[in-house]
């Protein structure tokens, strides 16, 4: 399979997403030239706001490969990842993102991707979605335990 | 239960995360004064890079309530959400985020939150994680089908 085939598969998955009552988004994770995970948007049919195509594809790839680390993989997605999905790609250590539609295309058909990109870059006091800090001293206990654990696995 | 109790529970979950080999992060989703979803970081033990406390808590709340829409809920999290989790909170329509540690605290113990915040705000050509556009005209097919579907459910 070539690169165009991977993108064609992601696009086909985006059409499946619509057919199933989800959003028009599809993605495949490719490692060593092989598709190791596929995903289509299932927010509404799956009743899961995190079930974006990229997140679903990454979770499928990790389940298949038995690791949280997809270093060296490439994700082909029918649309530029939203900040949630960009974060998921980052944490999965995926090496490259190849996308079709972009955030402006997504905004034009009613999705919030561009708005979330604006939001995430604002300082907290300027945000639309309010954030408030509480009990910071107590909350540090988990971090203390993490630091003290000799066999911790960073990710 | 009061607000401090919700945060105490999120902090306890962050300690559970460490005990189980995950990262030091915990979260609870509260709706109408009741905890409807809990999560602790399970990236390493669950072999899932998306298994951050907030994502796990949101998925649990949605599974319990049978909806992708958590409008009116509040999330209490032991640490400021990373961009992935902030995106998940946004898409879930959660009304407010209450957090303990912040992204600088997380960076100080080796987590990438601050780096991802920098990355997500950069224009694509300036990114560390490369993005490349491919087959945009073909990729629009899913969007066309979405727009044409009379019974689509926006989210």
What does this structure look like?
Two copies of one chain form a homodimer. With 155 residues, the first copy, chain A, is α+β, with helices and mostly antiparallel strands. In chain A, 43% of the residues lie in helices and 18% in strands. Chain A has six helices and five strands. In chain A, β3, α3 and β4 form a beta-alpha-beta unit. Chain A is globular, with a radius of gyration of 18 Å. Chains A and B meet through α1, α2, β3, α3 and β4 of A and α1, α2, β3, α3 and β4 of B.
At a glance:
The structure is a homodimer of 155-residue chains. With 155 residues, chain A is α+β, with helices and mostly antiparallel strands. Chain A has 6 helices and 5 strands.
Characteristic key phrases:
homodimer; 155 residues; alpha+beta
Radius of gyration of chain A over all CA atoms, rounded: 18 Å
Task: Note the gap between the termini of chain A.
Answer: 31 Å
Quaternary organization: homodimer
Uncertain runs of chain A:
none
Helix-strand makeup class of chain A: alpha+beta
Sheet with the most strands, sense and barrel status of chain A: 4 strands, mixed
Tally the beta strands of chain A: 5
**Chain pair with largest interface:** A-B, 92 and 92 residues
The helix-strand sequence of chain A is: HEEHEHEHHEH
What share of residues of chain A is helical? 40-55%
Q: How much is the average pLDDT of chain A? A: 97
Number of helix segments of chain A?
6
Q: How are strands sequenced across the largest beta sheet of chain A?
A: 2-1-3-4
**Form type of chain A:** globular
What percentage of amino acids of chain A are in beta strands? 15-25%
């Amino acid at each position: 399979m070539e690169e165009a085939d991977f993108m064609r598969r992601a696009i086909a998955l985006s059409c499946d997403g619509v057919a199933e009552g989800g959003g028009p988004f599809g993605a495949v994770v490719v490692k060593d030239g092989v598709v190791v995970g596929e995903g289509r948007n299932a927010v509404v049919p799956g009743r899961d706001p995190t079930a974006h195509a990229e997140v679903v594809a990454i979770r499928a790839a990790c389940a298949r490969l038995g690791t949280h680390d997809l270093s060296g993989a490439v994700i082909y997605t029918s649309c530029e990842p939203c900040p949630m999905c960009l974060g998921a790609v980052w944490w999965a250590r995926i090496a490259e993102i190849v996308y079709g539609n972009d955030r402006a295309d997504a905004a034009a058909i009613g999705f919030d991707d561009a708005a979330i990109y604006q939001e995430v870059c604002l300082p907290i006091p300027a945000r639309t979605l309010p954030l408030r800090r509480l009990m910071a001293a107590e909350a540090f206990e988990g971090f203390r335990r993490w630091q003290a654990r000799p066999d911790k696995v960073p990710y």
